[in-house]
Design brief:
By secondary structure, the chain is an alpha+beta fold. It contains three helices and three strands. Strands 1-2-3 form a three-stranded mixed sheet.
């Protein structure tokens, strides 16, 4: 990935998060912008987000981001200067949830393994 694209991704990540958590503070408290992946031509950007909570909170977060997408883009456009400000497309980042469930599974296996070792020694 070219350095410019990496810098634009980082800049968009920071600014989207900042605007989201200042203008929409009450609604976006459980939303975390995890990363931004901009197309090489800088016309499209996938914004990955994570939500703390159950399926209802995830649905509300998706609805909020869809509803405020154009305003969010406009506010970010006022903060940064790019020849083309990319269209924002929001995608839920399921990596954190998958990682969390994997860690829970590993903890459970470790507990079972320790219980099995104690049973053999008795």
């Amino acid at each position: 990935m070219p350095k410019r694209t990496v810098r634009v991704n980082e800049l968009l990540h920071r600014e989207i998060s900042e605007v989201l958590h200042t203008r929409y503070q009450a609604e976006s408290v459980a939303i975390t912008i995890t990363s931004v992946n901009t197309a090489p031509d800088l016309r499209q950007a996938q914004v990955f987000y994570s939500v703390i909570g159950d399926d209802e909170k995830k649905r509300k977060a998706r609805s909020l981001l869809t509803r405020i997408r154009s305003d969010l883009r406009q506010q970010v456009g006022r903060r940064i200067v790019l020849k083309y400000l990319p269209e924002l497309h929001f995608r839920e980042d399921r990596g954190l949830a998958q990682g969390s469930s994997l860690l829970a599974l590993m903890d459970e296996l470790e507990i079972q393994d320790e219980a099995g070792e104690r049973g053999e020694k008795d």
